[in-house]
Every structure is written in C-alpha cells, then in structure tokens.
Amino acid sequence: MWRAAAVRALPGGGAGAPRAASGAAAAQLRRRLESELEDIRGAGTWKSERVIASRQGPHLRLAGGGGGIINFCANNYLGLSSHPEVIRAAVEALEKFGAGLSSVRFICGTQSIHKDLEEKIARFHQREDAILYASCFDANAGIFEALLTPEDAVLSDELNHASIIDGIRLCKANKYRYKHMDMQDLEAKLKEAQKHRLRLVATDGAFSMDGDIAPLREICQLAQKYDALVFIDECHATGFLGPSGRGTDELLGVMDKVTIINSTLGKALGGAAGGYTTGPKPLIDLLRQRSRPYLFSNSLPPAVVGCASKALDLLMESNAIAQSMAAKTQRFRSKMAAAGFTISGKDHPICPVMLGDARLASVMAEDMLNRGIYVIGFSYPVVPKGKARIRVQISAVHSDEDIDRCVEAFTEVGRKHGALS
Ligand code: PLP
C-alpha cells in the first residue's frame, strides 16, 4: 500500500524518462565526459559487463544467450559461492537477524554473528583478533592511515593491488616502492628506510594478474634483519594455499613472521562480500577506534556474514575441497604447457595464458566464448604493454571434463589465430 502511494506521488508516476540536468555547467560536464569515454573506446580499453542470468558457478547461463557456458573467470576458487550449505546459512541468518543493520558497527550495528565471525577468522589464521569491513578494498583503505604516521615508512611491491596503493596514498608515512618481488631492491629500500621509526613491508601474498606468489620467506628474513613488520593481502590465497588453506604464510612456513593479514570474504570464502584485517589485538583495537572505512560505513549484512561463517566452517572441517582445486589446477597447467602455451605463475589457480599481443588476447577470448568457454583477455593498462594474456581461473567445482574442454578450445583457437605453431 505505502509503496504504491509513494510511487503515485512521484512526478511521472515514478516511471518517467530520465531527466537531464539543465544549465551550462551540466552541458559542459556532459561534453567532457563524452569525450573522455570516446578516448577510452579509442584506446581499446573499454570494459563492458557480460550479464549472467544464473548463479555463479562453473556452468553459467548468460542473459539473452544460451546456457552451458563453462566459466573460467571467477574468483570462486573453492566453488563455495553457490554451495547449498552456504546458501542455507545465508537464508537462516537473514531470517534470524534481518536484512541489515542500518548502522555502523559502533553505533548499533554489531550483532553476535559479527563477533562470532571475527573470532572465527582470527582462529582460522591463528591470530589474536580480527575486524570486519564491507570489503577488502576498505580493509586496505583503512589500515595504513590508522597505523602509520609521518615518522614511519611503508615499502610496497610495485605490482600490489590497487586498493593497497590507494590505502598507502591515504597515509602520511614515507613511501618506498620496490621492484616486483625483487629482494635486492627491497633490501636497498629497507636500508634507506632505517632512519624512520617503524617500517612496514606490504605485499600481495599471491598476485592476481600473474598467479605468482610473493617470496615471503625471503621478505620475512629481510624484515627481521632490518627490523620491519610484514603485511600481506591474501585475497587470492585465503582458503586454499598451504596444507590447510590458511594462505601464503602457511604455504611458505612463515605464519609466525607475518604480522598483519588483510583478506576478502568475496572470493574463496563464499564469494558474497566483505573483508577483514587479522593480527595483534592492540592493532585490531586501534582500527576499531581510527579506521575510517570501519567507522563510517554500514555493518556487513547478516546474510553475508552467514555465508562467510559457513564457508569457514566447511574449510576448518576438511581441506578436501582445496586439494581437489589444486589437482585441477595441475591438470590444466600441465595440459596447456603440453599443448605449447606459456602459463605464468606456478601451482596457483590463476593461470594466465601469455599471448603478448592485446588484439590477439581479445579475439581469442571472444572465440573461446563462441565455443562455450568464458575467459577474459587482459591488456594494457591492466597489465604491462606487450604482456597481454587470457586469465584462466580454476575452481574446485570444475570437472576434469570442463578442464579438458577448455584446453581443447584453447588449442583450436590458438591454432586458428597463429598463437600455436
Ligand atoms: N586485494 C586484492 C589482491 C584483490 O584482488 C581484491 C579484489 O579484486 C581486493 C583486494 C579487494 O577485495 P574486495 O572485493 O573484498 O574489495
């Protein structure tokens, strides 16, 4: 009743044509935006959205198209995004705790499930405490400014994720950028940074464009030598790297040497949304007082909390899902190498098929979709010039047959476009 009345009260019944703002400034803005958009199209870097008409999973139906598309471009590494128990947990949390909190955490936005999930995350990573955010982008935006002052220094891998770069931009610490995974360069920068009060080395645990893994053992050794702290972003590692899926620090045996972990609930851990920081209790306490995306943004909705909490339960019960993903990754990587392709990275479900030429990556990705295989081509400025690629992401819920069909399609399309001899 109230909705119908409200809609009727809107001019045009709420369903009229969009109105363009009038005035010279609005017209000037429109011209400037249109020209900028034209430049993006002209540069060949336009990003469009493909609309999915089904749940996230290994097999998709695209809007306006047929079904039966095999999806190789989600971060759904463990296949939990549409896992029946994860969905059921979300529905139960929705029914019991409502749609949302209409509040930030410290006003009236903390429910028992938020505290339980923070405790579970800390336990999963074997850390003292954890704090939730609406996303890992927010966790990265909130940590450096809260922790570091102009007396301190942050040393960041040049290929770190955009959200780490933005988070560092927001803080007033002295900034050092070291060459990608280059330990000599990191050491030189650590020597230079000795004059500051505190040094924090910040790196992705696994890099999403190359599927390569940060040399954390060496980073931690240098950090020890030069009295620095280590921060890792584990978005592409949490839940599946390491013997029990704890992440890069477990994989490389340095769980007790990494001080701070930021990660996401929006990839392997159910795929809904949300991020977190886990680490020493006083740090988490400080973030609750100072971190702006935490203080000034709404609490995670209960359904989202329910998904992540169930995903963590499943992972803490057994690492069978992570092992099955590792076996499938191995199958894809070895079959593609045997077919003559170069796959970047090692043992990671992000498998970039290196092609070099941007147009080749784009036409091959399009042709793969014509064969029912959904993959995405990446070119400059997302990756360096001349290093265009098609990024394939393997999931525990791909069947061996899905993987083999993908390799066959790559082989056909690669031959057709001259990427394979
Ligand atoms: N860090 C890395 C390395 C990522 O790949 C992403 C997501 O693309 C993020 C942070 C942001 O995560 P979220 O989607 O939770 O904001």
Protein described:
With 421 residues, this protein is an alpha/beta fold. The chain folds into 2 domains: 117 residues, Aspartate Aminotransferase, domain 1; 234 residues, Type I PLP-dependent aspartate aminotransferase-like (Major domain) (Aspartate Aminotransferase, domain 2, 3-Layer(aba) Sandwich), CATH 3.40.640.10. 44% of the residues lie in helices and 14% in strands. The chain is built from 16 helices and 13 strands. It has a 7-stranded mixed β-sheet, with helices on both faces. Helix 10 links the parallel strand 7 and strand 8. The longest helix is centred in the C-terminal third of the chain and has 20 residues. The protein starts with a helix and ends in a 5-residue tail after the last helix. The N terminus is likely disordered. Bound molecules: pyridoxal-5'-phosphate. It comes from Hirundo rustica rustica. It catalyses: glycine + acetyl-CoA = (2S)-2-amino-3-oxobutanoate + CoA. Keywords: Acyltransferase, Pyridoxal phosphate, Transferase, Transit peptide.
